[in-house]
Specification:
Layout: H1 10-20, H2 24-38, H3 46-49, H4 54-63, H5 77-94, H6 104-108, H7 113-129, H8 151-158
Helix pairs in contact: 2-7, 4-5
């Protein structure tokens, strides 16, 4: 909805903060990666090329076949928004954290395009981690590094004062009485 008012006060500040996070370079990378994965050129800004959700559905179906059963070709707004919703549901089912994704209105109404770009990058990271043999985007997703400590090691660690906690060696309050003493006057006297 391009006729949405810009907003004033806090609404305008939030909108400016969101738009301040936008990176044309990250968007270009996301468009090129999507195009390489689906075998089509993704032209123009993401809010225009992906607004109907068809490219996004093709993307997740290429990465994980059968993720979106039916891609709506209709020009009706609710069908286009359904495509975006189906893409997001398929991403969550694929293992992309919901916090890394975006909401339908972020793309459909172009309310938070930086989050849309971040969501596409998150899909790419997860695809790389799950062994997708196609093109990759962004850094490799980190793997868990679980550590198992014995009870002895855990007990030994309780006796160590870490440097983050500081040290009280040599600390005292001597010399803290410089200047004039605090004057407290009784107003009733």
């Amino acid at each position: 909805m391009s006729d949405r008012p810009r907003g004033y006060g806090m609404t305008a500040e939030v909108s400016d903060k969101i738009q301040g996070k936008y990176s044309p370079e990250l968007e270009r990378e996301a468009r090129e990666w999507m195009g390489d994965v689906i075998g089509e050129t993704v032209e123009g800004p993401i809010q225009d090329s992906c607004k109907d959700g068809r490219i996004l559905c093709k993307l997740i179906n290429t990465i994980q076949p059968g993720s979106v059963r039916k891609i709506n070709e209709s020009k009706m707004a609710f069908k286009q928004m359904e495509n975006i919703g189906n893409f997001l549901d398929a991403c969550v089912a694929y293992g992309v954290p919901k916090t890394d994704l975006f909401q339908t209105v972020d793309l459909f109404e172009a309310q938070n395009i930086p989050q849309v770009v971040n969501g596409i990058h998150a899909v790419g990271r997860k695809a790389g981690k799950k062994g997708f043999n196609g093109p990759t985007i962004g850094p490799k997703e980190a793997a868990a590094n679980k550590r198992d400590f014995t009870d002895e090691q855990l007990k030994a660690g309780q006796n160590v004062i870490g440097l983050q906690m500081g040290s009280n060696k040599g600390a005292s309050q001597t010399g803290m009485s410089y200047g004039a003493p605090r004057q407290i006057h009784d107003p009733t006297a």
